[in-house]
Amino acid sequence: MNGRIATLMVHTSPLDQPGIGDAGGMNIYVLESAQRMAAMGVEVDIFTRRTENKSPDIIEISKGVRVRYFECGHGNLTKEQLPVHIVGLSKEFMRIIKDENYDAIHSHYWISGKVAMPVAAQLGIPLVHTMHTMARVKNLNLAEGETPEPMIRVQGETQVAAAAQALIANTDAEAASLVSLYDACPDTVHVVNPGVDLYTFTPGFGRKAAREHIGTPSDRFVVTFVGRIQPHKGPEVLIRAAAELVKHSPHMRPKLIVNIIGGASGANTEEVERLKELATWLGIDDVVHFAPPVPRADLVHWYRAADLVAVPSYSESFGLVALEAQACGTPVIATAVGGLRTAVADGISGVLVDGHDPKAWSSVIARLLQEPQRRVLLSMGAIEHASHFGWDATARETLDIYDEVITQNNATAKIAGQ
Fold it and tell me: Please, which pLDDT band fits residue 414 given cuts at 50, 70 and 90?
């Protein structure tokens, strides 16, 4: 198709560094798919709220892709403060796009969906929505001590699911959750797997070269976590698993490095310090190394340098970290939840673990570290598995959905005008 799409992601900019604040896989998803769609002839404007006064109104990312900032009107608000400003955000979004002739609006995350709903209705153009994460799913899988998602989010997601002409789910499991937990019409739910940049995330020159690049000894066992530092992502599970491992296999202690790469998430700015204190209390602060989020070009080296990448999330709509690591040839240990069941081929590209018991995680990690031949086989399987998930396919399938809803919308408008 040829046309113009208004993509809306209110609570975080596609240009924000993943792994800090509210930026994560969704930021990568939106930017990567937009660039691939633009290469196929579709113009994509990504609308997000301005958080810095110095930001220009429009930034051209590449040919056919622009980031457009609009005012929230209340300064630099946190994600948690945004819901009460949805009406104002909708009015501002409407003011900007009402005369611009977009063919469809694609909103990402529930707040954006709520902002987009009245605008799409007033302009008579179709609304496509991607949830990315869902409150009801998260609340069924909370980490210990984690605060449940508020009812205003549950209600908002339910309203968006009913209003959208198309809902894009990352996996079959997410599609099933939309239907069973939100009463979404099955005919409006489509499954489009996210992708991985197969040109950037590659095995490269191997583990030894990667370790030289980041300054890690070549004779160590390295297990790495990448992501926002929040309870729901499960970094504490990996830290406690490491403590169990060195307790039962003390000879592994001088050989083991556990990397925790990421920044504080949202309003929870103290989580990194809490985990550092936990590592000290468990007596493994010599084993666990914390690092801030790194640019994606450098992240490749951290993936390649690891023997294993751990994704111990409590729920995950897909799990781009798992896919990126596998594309680099690194096997993944992940929780057997949500989209991770699709992102990781259990026993082929990595291992899925039921639950979050540190002892169980310790057992799986120890066994894999002590079986180098199996890790080689998993590495080969990881590269092959990841090769099936490219952003070009994500973009093509998304464009097919745009085509479908635009055609339906035009037919409905024609009938109404008769």
Answer: confident
Whether the Cβ atoms of residue 133 and residue 315 lie closer than 8 Å to each other: yes
Give which of 373, 369, 370, 335 is closest to 351, Cα–Cα. Answer: 335
| Residues forming beta bridges with residue 259, ordered by sequence position | 224, 289
Helices (H), 184-263: 207-214, 235-248
Size of the chain in residues: 418
Task: Round to the nearest angstrom and report the end-to-end CA distance of the chain.
Answer: 26
Q: Is the full-model pTM beyond 0.85?
A: yes
Return d(Cα 355, Cα 288) in angstroms, integer. Answer: 22
pLDDT, tens digit, 9 for 90 and up, residues 85-134:
899 899 999 999 999 999 999 999 999 999 999 999 999 999 999 999 89
Give CA–CA dist 165/126, Å, rounded. 6
Q: Which domains does the chain carry?
A: 3-195+391-417 (3.40.50.2000), 207-386 (3.40.50.2000)
Closest CA to 190 of 204, 207, 176, 205: 176
